[in-house]
Predict the 3D structure of the following.
Amino acid sequence: MSVTAFRPRHIKAKVKVTVTNPDGTVAEVVEGEYEDPFTTDFDAMFYGLFTFPIQTPGGVPVHDVAGNVYYFYSPGSNVYATPYAGWCFVNCPYASVAASMYKGIGPGIWLYSSPFSPNNYVWANYANVITPITYYSPSTSPGANAVPGATYGGTATFTITQQMTNTSGSTITVYSFAVVVAVYSIYGGAMYTSPILVGINYFDLSSPITWSPSAGMTVTVTYQIPN
């Protein structure tokens, strides 16, 4: 019997962090490439989508960014235990409600003053979320009504971007960042209006960034998905 060997292909994320001086000039650029940079909570949500019919009441445990445990995708009575839980990164409904629950920051790219290693989840680093700074609204490319695609054997790409300004008045050292999404559920036939925030990607920078007061920062993550 012959066995065909398939060339392994991975989801990749290309990261670019651009620091700008208060006058708009570029002070520093840090770039990197990461393979399959997903958290264990992303894995749990992804698994739950496919296994809803076999889950017992209680479902799949998922941590929010603060370490609280919720149970998704089961026939149980937990508010998130439905197969209709959705994820959102940009233009998210009730984002301000979620922000009020988590350090005043909504879904988007969160900066941290400590690396994630050796953990492969976001919530253990919650005490090191960088605040108070200004996080602007995130964006995606392609935008609404556009689906990234590619031919067979090709690679589909999409990009998420967020800008920040160091309005803390102090110099900050940035070691890492995470991609955080709002997670919703359908409860009683309507969208539950208190989404939780879950970290789905984490990135330790190749070298920490010293971020001066009033300086800006733009973080871009381009996902490359093999088709």
Q: What stands out?
A: The mean pLDDT is 86. Residues 12-226 form one domain.
